[in-house]
Specification:
Keywords: Membrane, Transmembrane, Transmembrane helix. The chain is mainly alpha-helical. The protein contains ten helices and no strands.
Length: 216
Amino acid sequence: MSTGMIVLTVIVAVVIIAAATAPFLRGRGRYGGPGLKRRFGPEYERAVALHDGDTKAAEQELAERVERHGELRERPLDPAGQEHYAARWTAVQEHFVASPRQAVAEADQLLAELAAARGYPDGGRYDEQLAALSVHHADHVDGYRQVHRVARAGARDALTEAGSGTEEMRTALVGARALFDDLTHPSGETGRHRATHARRRAHTPRAFNRGHLKES
């Protein structure tokens, strides 16, 4: 092979490698290392664990999420929309008393619809919706993940022990509430809406508490 061909081959290889690594390097340069860890919090630790402790692989995955969804701007909910979703969540909690599995499935569907209404990918693309939510609601997105997992398990009749299954569903629903609150009551809402939200939380149906559950 001539010297010219060798040089050309090297140049082509460098271009290919640069193109392949550019998205990761851009994400890492803007958000990488400590920036990713601060941004994702518990999601960062989860990603590292899923990659068997491989920090670089975990950061590449998280940086790619930021590249895809970091520029997403949430659509606001008007007061009527907030009231609509709050009423539906209250109904979910009330349904839990008689039918925990149905309530968890309703909560899973409600979060998917609410996220889509706020401008996230449609709930039919659950993985992509979850990834986008993790970029903007990293502290609470795992609640959605858990309620979705439990809802799917309930649909497959995978929970064979009624007592432990019911408690797992209750825990999942409680965890999902944090993301619901994030999506329905953003930090910029007015004081009146905050007060209304606080009153709703204070009046969580008594039967939803651990000591008042019926088995599914």
